[in-house]
Specification:
Oligomer: heterodimer
Largest sheet of chain B: 11 strands, mixed
Number of helices of chain A: 12
Mean pLDDT of chain B: 88
Shape of chain B: globular
Strand content of chain A: under 5%
Mean pLDDT of chain A: 89
Distance between the termini of chain B: 67 Å
Strand order of the largest sheet of chain A: 1-2
Number of helices of chain B: 18
Number of strands of chain A: 2
Structural class of chain A: mainly alpha
Structural class of chain B: alpha/beta
Number of strands of chain B: 13
Low-confidence stretches of chain A: none
Distance between the termini of chain A: 17 Å
Radius of gyration of chain B: 25 Å
Helix content of chain A: over 70%
Largest interface: A-B, 34 and 35 residues
Radius of gyration of chain A: 24 Å
Helix content of chain B: 40-55%
Chain lengths: 293, 392
């Protein structure tokens, strides 16, 4: 009898998931698979089109003209952005998820999503006015006598890029951690307090392990978005600063589709590996525990 | 009864929606979405209507096109082509651009390749009487002809150099200032090989005696020399940034983020309006000349719209368009018909200002100029080198 019930539940779950599965396969997996296949085709400069002549030329080209270095730099920059965002998101999410009532929590979440209200271009451009030679920060520093000439590295530098990306993507790190907080039973926290644990002890030994899957999810959200970003890098990075998205755009301009597809395939594989490693090492799947049983 | 129906299992709205209905409605919704994304076929084009696919700077706005239609009997449906020759050529060669548009407008250089591939048709100059009024030297632009036939009608012409802040760098007359080590981190170039490579080549040819024969069409060796020079200076931190687009260019100058940079003349006018003491340098090495040409797309000929397309090309040179474009963007159409039109329509345009713009552009071309070429023979190599510079 229990077997019958479980079977019926599995069938129901399958049929419920079927529409999403079809959508995922048709607009998610199939295009990705085609991109991977076409990355091995050849580009025909005569017709400006791809032809089904199998070749590794695009992958060889990936190692030329500094493209491999840009892949690594972008991954590094995305990892740094994700790390800084996550470090800032944990205390912010703690205030929202642990120390605030429902109304204040809602208000705070809304405040943190303000960066999404404006376009990325405007947001990144605004940083130029803040970080530039004649910008707000330099003017304050000079008027306070802290420096006598404008600080050059505030703008058109990796510092500016990371700052711009963290400001833009921080909510992506906060929300999963807030959701992880929502899964913590109040009785667990009360029990630790009854046993005499102070805030830091309770936080480090009870709360932090419980929200860790949310922390990892937040990190991954920011990492995945940051690795595909070009706006902040183009507007705030140094002369001709490049990124994976800019590199893809460059080769798409000359309709070298196989090379663009090869770059996209490598990035997709990198992201899948990162997610698998995160799941294995940091138990991302705990976010979904006691859901699927 | 609740109006939201949310979390209320007894809601009649919720209870009446069976699974079958839900699936049906979802299917209808998905179908509607799919239909919505399909391209609705264009309504039949009127005989005097032209689909003009050109650089955004050639757009004179709805009001302008309305007057243009009244004066020329050609109704223009304008679409911005992004002004990047790479994707434009690709869309003509492998896309549907020729099925949609009749006339193109893009910076000169791509005509030969497009003509060779049969993607554009030559203009019949007998159908463009105003062509006779085009400034003589503007008729002799290399790249706009192929096998003796004219494929590009010059619609906007200018010559570019550097924008400089007088209080920071004084009066400069050489591109050398862009690479001057004492100005490290305070100079910039455009993030496009189409302009930045030729500026550097002009400098190296004239001031560093580099063996470069045609700065607008570099051989592989010449290109390597120019790009290695740029990469070295990029690595040394010479450039504050490579700028991209009008707003960014203007902001860099207006906020004194850079003190001197290669760029477009209208940036100077806009910066001056913000109270900056900046000027457009007269470089001893010469200007980078450019021309935005009208090209007749093969599709227009196939659709028998060639006559209207010629009417359009003729109307561009008839005076109103030149006056309007000059007033809007400070760009010159290379014909004296502009001055004649402004004189005859002094209430709409200031004849003195129109004449001043014409004379200003003519004066630039009285000196040394090198023509920009958006499609040099080593075009793919240019792209590769520019990516290498970016990634360096």
């Amino acid at each position: 009898m229990p077997d019958k019930v479980a079977g019926r539940r599995r069938r129901a779950a399958f049929f419920l998931a079927l529409p999403s599965l079809v959508v995922f396969i048709s607009i998610g997996f199939v295009p990705l698979a085609l991109v991977a296949i076409w990355s091995f085709w050849s580009f025909d400069p005569e017709t400006y089109w791809i032809k089904p002549v199998w070749s590794l030329a695009s992958y060889t080209a990936l190692l030329k003209n500094g493209r491999a270095a840009v892949l690594l730099q972008t991954a590094g920059l995305a990892a740094l952005t994700a790390t800084v965002s996550t470090l800032l998101a944990v205390p912010a999410a703690t205030v929202i998820g642990l120390l605030s009532g429902p109304r204040r929590a809602t208000l705070l979440v809304a405040l943190f999503t303000i960066p999404f209200f404006t376009s990325g271009l405007v947001r990144a451009f605004a940083w130029r006015l803040v970080l530039g030679r004649e910008g707000v920060i330099n003017n304050v520093l000079i008027s306070l006598g802290v420096v006598h000439t404008p600080v050059e590295w505030l703008l058109f530098s990796d510092f500016a890029v990371v700052l711009g990306m963290v400001a833009a993507h921080l909510p992506l790190a906060i929300v999963p951690i807030v959701l992880a907080f929502a899964r913590i039973e109040g009785s667990v926290i009360r029990a630790s307090q009854d046993l005499g644990a102070g805030f830091w002890t309770m936080f480090s030994s009870i709360v932090l392990p419980l929200i860790m899957p949310g922390v990892v999810a937040g990190f991954l959200f920011v990492f995945v978005v940051a690795i595909g970003t070009s706006m902040e890098i183009q507007l705030l990075g140094g002369a001709g600063a490049s990124s994976i998205a800019i590199m893809i755009n460059d080769v798409m301009r000359v309709v070298n589709f196989p090379l663009a597809f090869a770059i996209a395939t490598v990035v997709a594989i990198l992201l899948i590996v990162v997610i698998i490693v995160a799941d294995r090492a940091l138990e991302l799947s705990r976010l979904f525990e006691d859901r699927g049983a | 009864m609740t109006h939201s129906g949310r979390s209320n299992p007894s809601s009649p709205i919720r209870s009446r929606l069976t699974r079958r209905q839900l699936v049906q409605r979802a299917a209808v919704g998905a179908g509607a979405l799919a239909v919505g994304t399909l391209r609705v076929p264009r309504a039949a084009q009127a005989a005097n209507e032209i689909n003009f696919w050109a650089s955004g700077t050639l757009d004179i706005g709805d009001d302008g096109w309305k007057i243009f239609a009244n004066e020329s009997d050609v109704k223009v449906d304008f679409t911005d082509n992004g002004n990047d020759p790479g994707p434009v050529v690709a869309r003509l060669a492998a896309g549907n651009a020729s099925d949609i548009y009749d006339v193109g407008g893009l910076d000169g250089g791509s005509e030969r390749e497009l003509a060779k591939r049969g993607l554009i048709a030559p203009w019949d100059l007998t159908q463009i009487p105003n062509y006779a009024s085009v400034w003589e030297w503007a008729k002799n632009i290399p790249y706009s002809t192929f096998e003796g036939r004219v494929y590009g009608i010059p619609s906007v012409i200018n010559a570019d150099s550097m924008i400089a802040l007088r209080n920071r760098v004084g009066l400069v007359d050489s591109y050398g200032v862009i690479f001057d080590r004492t100005l490290r981190g305070k100079t910039a170039m455009e993030d496009a090989w189409i302009n930045s490579v030729i500026f550097t080549a002009i400098y190296l040819k004239n001031s560093e005696n580099a063996k470069i024969s045609e700065p607008g069409d570099l051989t592989a060796d010449e290109l390597g020399l120019v790009m290695e020079f740029l990469i070295k200076h990029k690595k040394d931190g010479q450039f504050r940034t490579f700028w991209n687009g009008w707003e960014q260019g203007l902001q860099l100058v207006a906020n004194q983020e850079v003190w001197v940079m290669t760029g477009w003349e209208p940036i100077v006018y806009a910066a001056r309006r913000r109270g900056l003491d900046c000027y457009y340098a007269v470089p001893k090495e010469g200007y980078e000349a450019w021309c935005n040409n009208s090209i007749l797309l093969k599709g227009a000929v196939d659709r028998k719209r060639s006559k209207t397309a010629h009417q359009l090309a003729n109307a561009f040179l008839s005076g109103f368009y030149g006056c309007k474009l000059g007033a809007l963007r400070g760009y010159a159409v290379p014909t004296d018909n502009n001055v004649a039109y402004a004189t005859a329509h002094a209430r709409a345009f200031d004849p003195a200002a129109v004449k001043e713009l014409s004379e200003h552009v003519k004066a630039k071309f009285a000196g040394k100029v090198y023509w920009q070429n958006t499609r040099p023979a080593n075009f793919q190599l240019y792209e590769e080198w520019w990516q290498r510079l970016r990634n360096a």
